[in-house]
Design a protein that fits this description.
The structure is a single chain. This protein is mostly beta strands. The chain has a single domain, classed as Galactose-binding domain-like (Jelly Rolls, Sandwich). It contains one helix and eleven strands. The strands form two sheets. Strands 1, 2, 3, 6, 9 and 11 form a six-stranded antiparallel β-sheet that branches. Strands 4, 5, 7, 8 and 10 form a five-stranded antiparallel β-sheet that branches. The longest helix is centred in the N-terminal third of the chain and has 15 residues.
Length: 173
């Protein structure tokens, strides 16, 4: 190998090591378009509010005043992926009261069926510091047959009653 080829490889190596991950947007991730692209069914314990926002004017608010109701249930839009790989969900949470909520990732195949067990990828949204926006993330590994990622904001049944806001969800790989 010539010296010029070796020199070029050595100069390119740091660029590859420090390259920024590709961002994969989630539709209406900061809730500026209300509930568009998100599923907030009756009884979901979720609502879009202008009470507090990480950026823009809105965020998702989960309120559980009775830990025995069955938990919250808010689904984000399906985000297409190319299959096998490492992905990181990045989001912001604003704990108000209680012990936070669960952030789950549904990894789905082309037919919308679970490509991994439904609760394999989960993270409790930070519950402190209260009344401040906190950055959080969750890394997942998708199998070859995965075609979609979907955020699921869920306060598990029998969890501590409380209130939390979520905003700014995005994917990186």
């Amino acid at each position: 190998m010539s010296r010029s080829v070796i020199a070029a490889m050595l100069l390119a190596a740091p660029v590859a090591l420090f390259a920024q991950p590709e961002s994969i947007p989630i539709a209406n991730a900061s809730f500026e378009e209300g509930e568009d692209a998100w599923s907030l069914p009756d009884g979901s314990m979720g609502e879009v509010t202008d009470e507090q926002a990480a950026s823009g004017d809105y965020s998702l608010k989960i309120v559980d005043t009775d830990g025995d109701k069955g938990g919250s249930n808010v689904l984000g839009p399906r985000v297409p992926i190319d299959g096998k790989g490492s992905y990181e969900l990045r989001f912001k949470t604003f704990p108000v009261t209680g012990s936070g909520c669960g952030i789950y990732v549904r990894v789905l195949d082309a037919d919308g069926n679970a490509a991994v067990p439904g609760d394999q990828y989960q993270r409790g949204a930070p519950s402190s510091p209260a009344n401040e926006w906190v950055d959080a993330s969750l890394r997942i590994f998708a199998p070859a047959d995965a075609r979609f990622l979907q955020v699921w904001v869920a306060l598990p049944p029998k969890a501590s009653p409380g209130s939390v806001l979520v905003s700014g969800c995005t994917w990186a790989n």
